[in-house]
Design goal:
The chain has nine helices and ten strands. With 242 residues, it is an alpha/beta fold. It has two domains: 162 residues, Rossmann fold (3-Layer(aba) Sandwich); 61 residues. It has a six-stranded parallel sheet with strand order 4-3-2-5-6-7, with helices on both faces. It has a four-stranded mixed sheet with strand order 1-10-9-8, covered by helices on one side. α3 crosses α4. The longest helix has 16 residues.
Amino acid sequence: MNLNRTEFDAILFDMDGVIIDTKAEVEAFWSEKIEMHGVSIDEGYIEEKLHGRPARFIIEELFPHLSPDERKEMDKECTRYDSIQDSYTIIPGVEKILSQLVKSSINVGLVTSALPPKVEVMLQSLSIQKPFNTIVTASNVEKGKPDPECYLLGADNLGVNIRKVLVFEDSVSGVMAAERAGATVVGVNEEKISPMLKEAGARFVIRNFTETRFSEETATLHIDTLEKQFTLRKGTKNKRPG
């Protein structure tokens, strides 16, 4: 495959760390719970296993000593914590790219480990109306990232072959899920996290979308820092959710 110019039928975006910057909030919530319950975690756990996974799986893994009711309450607390936010900070450059993709009738979807209330706040934080043709949340899947189920579902909802999907992901678990599904993955994170994302299966890694351009005339996504370009197929799209 020519890595300098490849063709895709759709793009799937993760949410946290790709569209909205919630890294500090996510780590603050879980760090408080870990300290409160005296749980020890291995070095690297936060980047490798905490980010990008549904809360219910993190709770089962880190807090097995809690009763089922206590674990359920922690899950609800996490949902409340996410949904009380009035708005989120948008990752630099992504809103412009999303707007151009929508205008050019490119198949675009969202695949997140968050629940619908957080997604609603994210959507309200964007200036774009209904940018996604499909939205897959933690409530739509039985298995969380790094299992590929969520990305396979996203591609299926869009009516495309996952092997012709470009994915933007920020977490190790998310990259593994997309790569295992068969998608081409571009990591989005700090430079120090880049080696971990590439080891997990990311083909390339960018810091954000400030050096990313979309040509509406040629339906080509250019990532200047990588000197890469991806051609996207225009086509009839599914009804936008929401």
